[in-house]
Structure formats: structure tokens, C-alpha cells
């Protein structure tokens, strides 16, 4: 059972298609990179780096080996890409998603380094007073001037499953409060579904609540009014690799009411 609607030709998916068709990257002209506080490091012993990643039982050292192979391949195939990223970034998408290892945003969108600014946490929950997500949103909207904010949930979410249960989870308990509120508000419907269906429905409802939270932020409302920033709620189907866009758009009347309310309170 799903309350989602699929929009295969939505503005966000048309935008993604256009990005994939671009073969050359425009020069980066703003947002210079700050001085780095990170040092280049090498693995020890060196033999672990040179070993075949597929034969190396240590996943971390294997990943470092694969990184070197990726960097060399990228330098050969797109010699200007990494050099341009060293100058600065100008992503057009802010992605807010779950920390789940199965949901790597750049990979599932078919995009490249520098294309997506990212914030991820357990179950892609947006707490209105959370400093971490608020700082990311502020920076992405006001300084990077992203064109799209994408809030993504996903199927088979462990955080959602935890919120559907009643176990004590330590520090996760206060974090999952918004999800458990959604559970209580929709308890009868959720109890009538299978575990997988309930997980998916909770994920969709969580995305919708997150979109509402985004639309309460002054920096977001200003960008919507002044330059047409768009917000999208999506669900990632882990089993198929496909994104579904939820119908989270405001009508013109709803958007106008939000803007009037914001200006009245300001």
C-alpha cells in the first residue's frame, strides 16, 4: 500500500537527465576551496596498498587501493574534473538522505563529484532545531545557491524499522521521536500492513514531514520566492535502484500562504 505518486517527467528528473547529457564541465568561477586542514596519508605497510583489492581481506586497505585506481582512471578520462574541483564547487542539488550504506546519492543519481551537496543522518529525519542539518541547508541555499533540495527516504530503512518497534535504543530514542510521532498518528493504518509495507509507508510519511520542515525555514522560503528554488521528496527503492518522486508540491495558494505567514512573522 503506498501513498506515493510517480512523476517520470518532473522538473527534478528532467534536470538530472540534462546533467547526464553534459559532456564537458563549465569552469568553476566561485566558492573557492578553503585552506585544507587535512593531510595526504599513505597506508602502511606499503605492500597492502599495492595488493590486489579483490585479494585483500582488509576492506579498508582494499578501498584505499581502489581509490588510487579511481583517481588515475578519472585523471585519464576527465583530466580537467579534479583540477576544477580543487578550485571550488557549485553543486545544483542539495541531497538530504539516510546514512544507510545502500543509498549513495552520487551513484544512484548517475552524477559526479561536485554535482551534489550532501547531508545524511539516521532515517533522513529533519529536526527543526538540529544545528547540523540547519547549517548544511543554510550554506547550500544561501552560499552555494543550489537550485534543488531533494529529501530522500528509502525502502527497508533500519531507522524506520526501529521507530516501528518499542525497544529502548539509547541515544537513538530522542532522535527517532519524530518518526514515532508519525507511527502513533497513523497506527491503525500501519498495523493493517505487512512489515515491508509499513516500513515503506512510514518512510514516505517521514519524507513528507521533512519537506514541511524545510518549507518552514526562512532561508528556504526566501530562495523559493526570489529565485525559484524547488524542493522534492523522493523514495529510493533499494531492491530496484529506482527513485520515486512523491507529490509534495504546494499549490500556488499554499505557497502564497507560506510566504505571507513568513513575512508576517519576520
UniProtKB/TrEMBL annotation:
Cofactor note (record): Binds 1 zinc ion per subunit.
EC number(s) stated in the UniProt entry for this protein: 4.2.1.1
A Pfam entry, by short name: Pro_CA
GO molecular function, one term: zinc ion binding
Protein keywords: Lyase, Metal-binding, Zinc
First-tier enzyme category under EC: lyase
Cellular compartments per GO CC: cytoplasm
Catalysis performed (reactions): hydrogencarbonate + H(+) = CO2 + H2O
InterPro entries linked to this entry: Carbonic_anhydrase, Carbonic_anhydrase_CS, Carbonic_anhydrase_sf
Cofactor(s) needed for function: Zn(2+)
Binding locations of Zn(2+): 98, 100, 154, 157
Keyword Lyase included in the entry's annotation: yes
GO biological process: carbon utilization; cellular response to carbon dioxide; cellular response to oxidative stress
Keyword Cell membrane on entry: no
Function: Reversible hydration of carbon dioxide.
Family per similarity comment: Belongs to the beta-class carbonic anhydrase family.
PANTHER family assigned: CARBONIC ANHYDRASE
Protein name, UniProt field: Carbonic anhydrase
Organism: Aspergillus ruber (strain CBS 135680)
Amino acid at each position: 500500500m503506498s501513498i506515493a505518486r510517480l512523476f517520470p517527467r518532473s522538473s527534478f528528473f528532467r534536470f538530472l537527465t540534462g546533467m547526464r547529457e553534459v559532456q564537458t564541465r563549465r569552469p568553476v568561477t566561485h566558492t573557492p576551496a578553503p585552506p585544507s586542514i587535512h593531510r595526504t596519508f599513505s597506508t602502511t605497510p606499503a605492500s597492502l596498498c599495492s595488493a590486489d583489492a579483490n585479494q585483500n581481506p582488509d576492506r579498508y586497505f582494499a578501498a584505499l587501493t581502489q581509490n588510487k585506481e579511481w583517481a588515475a582512471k578519472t585523471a585519464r578520462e576527465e583530466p580537467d574534473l579534479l583540477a576544477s574541483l580543487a578550485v571550488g564547487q557549485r553543486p545544483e542539488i542539495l541531497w538530504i538522505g539516510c546514512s544507510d550504506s545502500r543509498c549513495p546519492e552520487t551513484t544512484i543519481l548517475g552524477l559526479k563529484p561536485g554535482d551534489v551537496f550532501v547531508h545524511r543522518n539516521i532515517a533522513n529525519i529533519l529536526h527543526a532545531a538540529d544545528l547540523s542539518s540547519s547549517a548544511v541547508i543554510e550554506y547550500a541555499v544561501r552560499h552555494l545557491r543550489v537550485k534543488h533540495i531533494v529529501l530522500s527516504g528509502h525502502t527497508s530503512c533500519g531507522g524506520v524499522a526501529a521507530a516501528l518497534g518499542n525497544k529502548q535504543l539509547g541515544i537513538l530514542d530522542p532522535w527517532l521521536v519524530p518518526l514515532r510521532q508519525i507511527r502513533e498518528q497513523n497506527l491503525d493504518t500501519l498495523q493493517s500492513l505487512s512489515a515491508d509495507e509499513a516500513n515503506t509507508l512510514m518512510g514516505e510519511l517521514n519524507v513528507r514531514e521533512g519537506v514541511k520542515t524545510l518549507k518552514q525555514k526562512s532561508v528556504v522560503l526566501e530562495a523559493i520566492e526570489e529565485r525559484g528554488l524547488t524542493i522534492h521528496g523522493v523514495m529510493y527503492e533499494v531492491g530496484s535502484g529506482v527513485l520515486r518522486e512523491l507529490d509534495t508540491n504546494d499549490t500556488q495558494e499554499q505557497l502564497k500562504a507560506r510566504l505571507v505567514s513568513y513575512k508576517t512573522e519576520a
